[in-house]
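Please decode residue identities from the backbone states below.
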């Protein structure tokens, strides 16, 4: 199934839509790192969504990607968003305006955040929101609250 469009103007400032191409020459660090966001919506995806923000050295946040369905047409569907993020600190926030998360009182929804095959965070049982702080490239354990 086709994913709804994401605001590409917002994405172009910080990320590119495709992972970096493979190179035969060794580089000190890639220009960006592959990150994936996979959301399995519950029975009522309207009012559910996420925001991904980059955190700068002064703890200021700038949105690099977000997605909120504008109706319930994605009920029990999967939304996949591949990204290519630059090195740095990030905050992923999953929201549910009804206060029952995306699992388990109104279906079996879940979210998964990965980078280069490593799970950064997963969840679904929360109330109004759940935040995850992480670094790219991924290092150590991530902070979830």
């Amino acid at each position: 199934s086709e994913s709804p469009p994401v605001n590409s103007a917002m994405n172009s400032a910080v990320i590119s839509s495709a992972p970096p191409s493979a190179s035969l020459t060794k580089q000190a660090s890639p220009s960006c790192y592959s990150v994936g966001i996979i959301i399995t919506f519950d029975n009522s995806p309207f009012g559910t969504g996420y925001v991904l923000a980059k955190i700068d050295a002064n703890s200021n946040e700038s949105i690099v990607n977000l997605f909120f369905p504008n109706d319930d047409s994605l009920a029990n569907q999967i939304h996949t968003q591949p990204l290519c993020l630059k090195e740095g600190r990030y905050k992923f926030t999953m929201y549910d305006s009804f206060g029952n998360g995306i699992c388990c009182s109104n279906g079996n929804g879940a979210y998964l955040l990965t980078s280069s095959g490593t799970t950064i965070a997963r969840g679904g049982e929360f109330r109004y929101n759940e935040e995850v702080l992480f670094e790219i490239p991924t290092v150590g354990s991530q902070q979830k609250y």
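Observation: The first strand starts at residue 33 and ends at 40.
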